[in-house]
Amino acid sequence: MSVTLEGIEAQIRSYNPSADLRGIEEAYDFALTHHAGQMRKTGEPFISHPLEVAMILAGLNLDTATLQAAILHDVVEDSAASIKEVRELFGEEVAALVDGVTKLGRIKFSSLAEAQANNMRKMLIAMAKDIRVILIKLADRLHNMRTLAALPDEKRHRKAIETMEIYAPLAHRLGISSIKWELEDLAFFYLEPRKFAQIEKMVSESRDAREAYLHQVIDQLTTELTAIGVESEISGRPKHLYSIYQKMTYRGKDFSEIYDLIALRVIVGSVKDVYGALGTVHSIWKPVPGRFKDYVAMPKFNMYQSLHTTVIGPAGRPLEIQIRTEEMHRTAEYGIAAHWRYKEGGRADEAFDERLSWLRQMLEWQTELKDPREFMEALKIDLFEDEVFVFTPKGDVVSLRRGSTPIDFAYMIHTEVGHHCVGAKVNGSIVTLDYELQMGDRVDILTNKSSWPSRDWLNVVRTSSARSKIRSYFSKASREDDLVKGKEELGKVLRKQGMHASASTLGKALDVVARDMNLTEGDDLLAAIGSGKQSPKQVVTKLIKVLAKDEAAAPQPEPEAVLPVLQPSRAVSRRRSATGVRVKGIDDVLVRLAHCCNPVPGDAIVGFVTRGRGVSVHRADCPNARELVSSSAERILEVEWDTETSSTYQVEILIEALDRTRLLQDISIALADAGVNVLSAAISTDRQGVAYLKFLFELGHMDQLQKVLNQVRAVDGVFDAQRTMPEGGKKRGGES
Q: What band does 646 get if pLDDT is binned at 50, 70 and 90?
C-alpha cells in the first residue's frame, strides 16, 4: 500500500502527540503542486517517492523540520521550484536541509570513480554541518532500493554495489541498524540472486522447528526473570539473509551452525536490571567461554550499547542473548536518529558531537587523498570496520579499527609520532610493529628522530588515516624518483606502439590527458605512472586520441609488413579442418583453436595470423582477441565454423559454491550424468569458505553445455556455474 500524508501524520502522533502538523501539510501541498505530472520509472506518481522517504524517517521518530525537508527534497532538483522559495515558505532550517540534499547530487563528473569520490566528500562535509542531511539521503536510497527493479540491469547492479559498499556501512557507522540490514539484504538480492534465493530457501525450510524451540526458551527465561522481580520483553532476534551469507562465507560455517543458533533479545527497565538479567541467564544455562561482551560499560563507535553472551541452552543448542534497556534498544535500532529527541526547534543531545569523532577524523584525512580510487578505498575501510579500544600510558582511551597495529596507534596520537616510530611496548612487553592490538591493550610507542617510515608499513597498517599519512610522506619524498620512472615506463609503451612525437607536442598532450584524469599537469600524471597509481597503457590510449587530432603526431606505420603471404583460393576449400573452422578465401592453412578462450561452435570468432604457427582462432569477446584487433589489425582474418565437420571441443567452466564435505564428489557425479569427458580439474577455497572449481572437458556439440551447467547448478550448495572467460592482459602462449 502506498504511503499517504495521513499515514505520515499518524506515525508522527505516535511518538509526538502534540506535534504541529501544519508545516508537514504545507510541504506536501507544495511538493504535490511542483511534482504534478511527473512519474517514476515504476509508473507511480513522483510524489509517492518523497512521501515514502518521509515515512521512513518518521519511523525513526525524527523532528518535523527533517520530515518537511524529506517531502521537499526533490523539488529544487526536479522541478521549477527554487531554494529561495523553500526558504521563504518553510524557513532557514528546512531550506538548509533541502539545499544540502540537493547539492549532493547536482555536480557531474567526467568518470564514475571521480563522481563517487567527490559525492562522498560532499556527503562527509554535509554530515559535519547537519547529520540530518545524510539521514534524508539514507532514507532516499532505501526507497530507491525498494523500487530498484524498475531500472535497467546495468543501473541496478551499479546502485546495488554502491549501496553495499557505501550506504549500508554508513548506516552502520551512524548506528541505524533498521536501515543498514534492509539495505544489505536488498543489495544482496540484486548482486547475488542465486545465493540470495538459496539462503532464503534454507531459512524457510528451518523456520517451524526454530520457532518452536524459541517459544520454549522465551517462556523459561521470562519465568526466571519474573521470579527475581525483573520485568522484561523477550523476543527472537531476526537474522538477515546477508548476515547469514557473511557468516557462511567469511567464518566458514555451515548453514546449520548459523541458523540453528537461536538469538534472543531481552529488553529490561534499567542498567541494574541488565546486569541482573545477565546473572539469571548464566545461572540457568552454562555460558560459553570467551563469548561475553560488555558494550554497556564500553559502547561501540556508533553508540551501540548491550550485553552479549552465548550460552548452551536446552537440548545442548547454542543460545545467543543480547540484554539492553529500552533506551539502548532505541539507539541500537535508530542510532544517531535516536538522539534527535523531538522538540520544536530542538537539537541533538550535548554528547552528540563527541560521538561523531570518527566523522571529524575522516574529514581530516580525506583532504589529503587526491586520487578518487584511493579515497574510495580508504572510505570503505573506515566505514566498514568495528573498533577496538586501547589505552595510552596515561590511561587515555584511543579508538582504532579492529586489526590495527602499533603503527596505526602511533599515527592516531600524532603524525610525527608515526613517522618516527621504531617500536612499541604493549602491556609492558616489546611487540613487533605488525602486532594486532587487542581490546584493553596499554600501548607505549618508542620513537627515534632519525628514523622514518618504511614502505612495508603500507602492508601492515589497517586504518585509512595512517595509510594516507604514510603515502603522503612518500609522495613528497619520492616525487622526483616517480617522475623519472614514469617517463621511462611511458616511453617503453610509446615505443612499443610505434608512436613518434616531439617533446613539446607530447608534453602538451600529457597536460591535456592529466586534466582529463583530474590531475593538474603532465608531471603529476608521470609521477602517478612511476608510483604505480596509473597504468601507462591506459595513458597511452588517451594520448593516442589527443595526438590523433594533430596529423604530424599521428602514429607512424610499421617499417615492414608483418603479415605472411597467404594465397587466396579461387573456390571454397574442399579440405576439412580438424578444428571445424575454415578461413574465408584461404585454402590449406594451419588452423588452431586458442587455449586462452577455447572457442566452440556457436561462438563469434576471429582469426589471427601468427608467425610460423598458422591461424589462431579466438572468441570475438576474448580480451586477447580485442587486444590483437587494436594492436595488429592487419593480421586479422575472417573465419567461420564449418558446420559439416564433426569435431570435439574443449570447454572450461567455473563453479562457485559453499565449501562442504562431498562437494567435489557430488559435482563429479553431476558431470558424469551429463555425459562429458573431464580432462582436468582445479579446486581452490578462499578464506571466506567459498569454493571455486574449474573443470575442462570435451563436448561434441554446444547443445550439451547448457545441460552440463543445469546439472551442476542443481547440486546442493552451488551458487553458480558459468563458462569461463580469460582475463585481460594474460600471455597468449607465445603468440606472435
A: low
Cα 716 from chain centre: 27
- Asked whether residue 100 is domain-assigned, the answer is yes
Residue 367: partners with Cβ closer than 8 Å, 6 or more residues away: none
pTM over 0.90: no
Q: Is 341 part of any domain?
A: no
Cα angle value 721/672/596 (rounded, 5°): 50
pLDDT at 142: 94
Residues 126 and 95 in one domain: yes
- Per the model's pLDDT, the better-predicted residue between 699 and 28 turns out to be 28
Tens digits of per-residue pLDDT, 287-339?
988 888 888 887 776 678 899 999 998 888 888 899 999 988 888 877 766 65
- The boundaries of the domain holding residue 277 are 194-335
Query: Hey, which residues are catalytic here?
Result: 77-78
Which residue type sits at 205?
E
586 and 523 fall within a common domain: no
Which cell numbers hold the place of 166?
557505501
Q: Is 683:693 a contact under the CB 8 Å cutoff?
A: yes
Q: Are the CB atoms for 312 and 285 separated by under 8 Å? A: yes
Q: What is the number of other CB atoms lying within 10 angstroms of the CB of residue 6?
A: 8
Q: What's the Rg (C-alpha) of the chain?
A: 31
- Which of 281, 279, 266, 278 is CA-nearest to residue 326? 266
- Whether residues 205 and 330 fall in one domain: yes
Cβ neighbours, 10 Å, residue 156: 16
Q: Which triple of cell numbers denotes residue 190?
A: 540484486
Tally of helices (H runs) and strands (E runs) in the chain: 30, 21
Query: For the chain, how many structural domains are there in total?
Result: 5
Q: Which of 249, 178, 256, 278 is nearest to 210 (CA)?
A: 256
pLDDT value at residue 600: 79
d(CA 261, CA 178): 21
